[in-house]
Amino acid sequence: MNKLFNKTAIASIVALSVLSMSGCDHAYKLDYPVESKDGASAAAVKVKFDNKSVFEDKAAYAIGASLGEYVAQMQKQQKQLIGELPESYIISGFNDGVKGKSALGREEVETILKDLDKQIQEKIEVETKKAAEDNKKNGEAFLKDNAKKEGVITTESGLQYRVIKKGDGVKPKAGDIISVTYKGKTIDGNVFDEQDKPVEFPLDNMIPGWVEGLPLMNVGSEFEFYIPAKLAYGENGAGQFIKPNSVLIFEVKLVDVKKPEEKKSEEKKGEEKVVADVKAEEKKVEAKQTEEKVVADVKAEEKKAEEHKADAPKADEKKTTDAKAE
After folding, report:
1. Domain architecture of the chain: domains with CATH
2. Buried-most residue among 156, 221, 285, 288 (CB within 10 A)?
3. Which residue stretches of the chain are H helix?
4. Is 25 assigned a catalytic role?
5. Which of 182, 223, 225, 226 is catalytic?
């Protein structure tokens, strides 16, 4: 946060404002005290807009309103990190900045904002660490209780699973391509990923819990895995929903298993089919063009024959005339 706003940010805010207002009735009136163009006091002037208002005035107000909304939203979101900032000082700082009469120098403003950003980052780190510790405790407690449930099996690594349906197909091995449907959720029930249609993955590229768990399944099987954080995404977490040290629950159905060479063979066959289809289309086009040319040539010959037939009486008449002349 070296600078609070820049041109790109303002442009983005203006664009968002336009989108948010696009569905609204443009015949509106806004009543808000501001300073007039001639420098009159804020309390003496009120902004009123209607369809006859000058565009530049409305655009200026829209930018100001958007910036205000942005700051308000930012303050609300970060209140727990930086506390509640005095609104009067924010407004005063904005007004002074617009007039070029800031009570703080440019370097001082940037230094303060950098310090503010540092404070926010430090508090985020503290809260993230605390959340990770809480997640670890909650995850350990969940796995301890879950291990006691009927049908749940715990491996040496700590991976837990429950057989929902036993299949009779082959089991995947390291290096295989797996085809699965699945649903992933956290222990509080939040679903972070779900695939209803089969998707393919290289088994070796999956998280450790999958690498260990999938080879326990036969094709056609359906298992529920309870994966400790150390066999999932660990202290880093992943994305917005998988927090650090999260235990993950996956319902997995193993649809098919392919060897890498089978996958390559399928891809090659697919490429060959595409090439064959393209060539077939090209042949169809060529055949159509040839057919059209033959038809055109036939019509041309027929036209010549008709023209020759029409000219024949004239030629005979000319011969007769020439003979009489002799």
Report:
1. 7-103 (no CATH), 152-262 (3.10.50.40)
2. 221
3. 7-21, 55-77, 79-82, 87-99, 106-146, 208-213, 260-325
4. no
5. 182
